[in-house]
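worker-3 :: picked DNA-binding Xre family transcriptional regulator
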Amino acid sequence: MAKKVIVKIGELTKKHKISLRELSRLSDVRHAALSELSNGKRESISFSHIERIAEALNISDIREIIELVEEGEENTR
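worker-3 :: tokens ->
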């Protein structure tokens, strides 16, 4: 079965009790880009975005931001 990378923006905003707009402000990543990632509408994310999100939320483990799952499994999250 194929693998897919999931960006866990929704989980991060809930865990840190912030809005997408606040995450955008803290990380200097466009709100639209974060929204697309959160909704699964974006197929890619740049390393600089991952780094800025990690810095903004004081994350040291990349697995808090992205996850590799079996194709189709992402809808169960």
